[in-house]
Amino acid sequence: MKTKKYMIALAIFGGALFTAQASNLINLDGQTTTEIKRHNFKVPPNG
Q1: What local confidence, expressed as pLDDT, does residue 23 receive?
Q2: Secretion signal: which residues (predicted)?
Q3: Exposure pattern of 9-38 as b/e (b: 16+ CB <10 Å)?
Q4: What angle do CA 13, 19, 20 make, to 5 degrees?
């Protein structure tokens, strides 16, 4: 029974850490923009 309580506590703690890390990765401040960068490709003269 004691081991079960420790496992539940560990699962809750791990879930909290995962949630904190995921929110840092998502970056809710909107500082990053999603844009497509297009490069000019050189077309070879033969084709």
Answers
A1: 65
A2: 1-22
A3: eeeeeeeeeeeeeeeeeeeeeeeeeeeeee
A4: 90
